[in-house]
Amino acid sequence: MSDPNPVPRFPAGALFDLDGTLLDSAPDMLATVNRMLATRGRPPLALSDIRPVVSRGARAMASVAFPELDADDVVALVPEFLAVYAEELGRHSLPFDGVESMLAALEAAGTRWGIVTNKPEYLAARILPQLGWQDRCAVLVGGDTLAERKPHPLPLLHAADAIGIGPEACVYVGDDARDIIAARAAGMPSVVALWGYRLGDDDPVAWQGDVMLDAPQALADASGWPQR
């Protein structure tokens, strides 16, 4: 007979999106697009202009900076964006408040944690030593690590396999619809990170994550995690 009042437990494995979930990287992204604008003699953007689309990648941010360009011209700016961003990487960004205490609580509970991001792997790998996470993060999967990227479930399944924990015993935490779609397709419980980046017309309720939380601090307690 199942326990009607089970004791909350941390998951065996916790996987996280990076930008907008663990890391407030919008200031780095803003510095990047403003350098690109400055070289063209154009005025800078404000953080509020770029912040909502950070989780959607370089093309989305380039589209905001250069709204007059068509899709092909925006794609052509991506290599420049990545090159400038590589120079700004970690210069302005910090973990969100509560992330460090959350990671410490996971580690104390014996949870293995890792990162699954759509950011190119070489850039994600460069940021880990700046944060002191290089020896703590059990797996890192970037957007170009595999043949597929989120919202495809392959990156999450690959990460779970790499840490030796079944997807059903892992939880994925992310701030974008693609994160929750990928988790559902992988058979992995999910947490919607409401503290992250999203557009004003996004409806996180419609993503149907298992848990929705306003701050990382909630995940420093086992009761904040989906219980299965």
Task: Explain what this protein looks like in three dimensions.
The chain is of the alpha/beta class. The protein folds into 2 domains: 13-25 and 94-224, HAD superfamily/HAD-like (Rossmann fold); 26-88. Helices cover 38% and strands 12% of the residues. It is built from 9 helices and 8 strands. The chain has helices at 26-38, 47-50, 58-65, 71-88, 99-108, 121-131, 154-162, 177-186, 204-207, and strands at 13-16, 23-24, 94-95, 112-116, 140-141, 170-174, 190-193, 211-213. The strands form 2 sheets. A 6-stranded parallel β-sheet has the order 5-4-1-6-7-8, with helices on both faces. Helix 6 links the parallel strand 4 and strand 5. Helix 1 packs across helix 4 (71-88) and helix 3 packs across helix 4 (71-88). The two termini are 15 Å apart. The mean pLDDT is 95.
Compile the SSE list and pairings:
Layout: E1 13-16, E2 23-24, H1 26-38, H2 47-50, H3 58-65, H4 71-88, E3 94-95, H5 99-108, E4 112-116, H6 121-131, E5 140-141, H7 154-162, E6 170-174, H8 177-186, E7 190-193, H9 204-207, E8 211-213
Parallel strand pairs: 1-4, 1-6, 4-5, 6-7, 7-8
Antiparallel strand pairs: 2-3
Helix pairs in contact: 1-4, 3-4
